[in-house]
Design brief:
single chain; alpha+beta; Jelly Rolls; six-stranded antiparallel β-sheet; 21 strands; binds fe (ii) ion
Length: about 325
């Protein structure tokens, strides 16, 4: 008996539906769930994570897990949606990463793009990207674009911690994932430049911010010149004077914020969090949100706006 025979024998829709299920069709008039809705309705929620907590937990964990075992000793921040235990927002993930004196994190490369915001570090902390040694200094931002070899070294004697931002969730959704471990485990250092397009020094960021005219709320913003290297994320440094409020913001962009100086509040709907230096807070797409500084504050914002823009999906309220 063929499917065509089975279809011919049906006497009503109720006979057809089991056939559809068996042959993997869904009747457009008989869907289990809607496929279109009036406006974005993500299940992702605004969240806040504490640097003090994450740092203490990673420091504690380093008694039991070293970089040999872990490759990367990091703590990812996930949004509790369904069985998700990875994505911070729909397209992006963020993690605190801690590396103890003398530790090295092995070289690998992958299609997802990554960048790091350095929080705390002593001398002789550095990343090697494609053979180029780039120091990791507090406040700096370093890019490791997709398919660049990267490894991290703490040759000093202070515990170091930074924040990783990656577009891995976007790569999971679109599926172009490739990952390779370096054949020599660590890369040879071939260059130690004083400046590099992947290296944004805090002093240069501050100098750029100083030249910006504040908006009506008194906020200065400087977008890092990273888009030739990472196409999926936009990186913005924000300087909020005491009392200033950013927003309300509501658009189709997913955002992760990291406070690099100061303290304040982050509000979105019924969610309200107090943040301070080193903390992370995330605003999923279409979550109307506001950020207020309770002292002069600096915030680093990573978002997927370039993706939404290029695909024609950028909409703001
Ligand atoms: Fe990596």
């Amino acid at each position: 008996m063929s499917t065509l025979d089975d279809i011919a024998k049906t006497e009503g829709l109720d006979d057809l539906y089991p056939l559809f299920a068996r042959e993997r069709y869904t009747a457009g008039w008989h869907k289990k769930r809607r496929s279109l809705w009036e406006e974005p309705k993500t299940e992702f929620r605004p969240r806040h994570w504490s640097y003090a907590e994450a740092h203490a937990a990673l420091d504690q964990a380093s008694q039991w897990i070293d970089t040999e075992l872990a490759e990367r000793r990091n703590l990812l921040m996930f949004n509790p949606v369904g069985d998700n235990d990875y994505d911070t927002v729909r397209t992006l993930v963020t993690a605190y990463q801690l590396i103890q004196p003398g530790e090295h994190a092995r070289a690998h490369k992958h299609t997802p793009n990554a960048l790091r915001l350095i929080l705390d570090a002593g001398p002789e902390l550095f990343t090697v990207v494609n053979g180029v040694k780039l120091p990791m200094v507090p406040g700096d931002v370093l890019l490791t674009p997709g398919e660049c070899w990267h490894s991290h070294f703490n040759d000093g004697n202070e515990t170091a911690c930074w924040i990783d931002f990656l577009d891995v969730p976007l790569v999971h959704r679109l599926e172009p994932m490739f990952y390779t471990e370096h054949p020599d485990v660590y890369q040879k250092v071939e260059q130690t430049p004083d400046a590099h397009p992947f290296w944004f020094k805090r002093a240069d960021i501050n100098a750029a911010l100083d030249k910006v005219t504040p908006d009506e709320a008194g906020i200065r913003r400087h977008v890092l010149d990273s888009q030739d290297h990472i196409l999926t994320m936009e990186l913005t440094c924000l300087a909020l004077p005491n009392g200033a409020t950013l927003g309300p913001v509501r658009d189709t962009v997913s955002r992760i914020y990291a406070a690099t100086k100061g303290s304040g509040t982050f509000r979105s709907g019924e969610h309200e969090f107090n943040w301070k230096r080193g903390d992370i807070f995330a605003a999923p797409a279409w979550a109307r949100h506001e950020i207020t500084a309770n002292e002069d504050s600096d915030i680093f914002e990573v978002c997927d706006k370039p993706v939404m823009e290029k695909l024609g999906f950028l909409r703001a309220e």
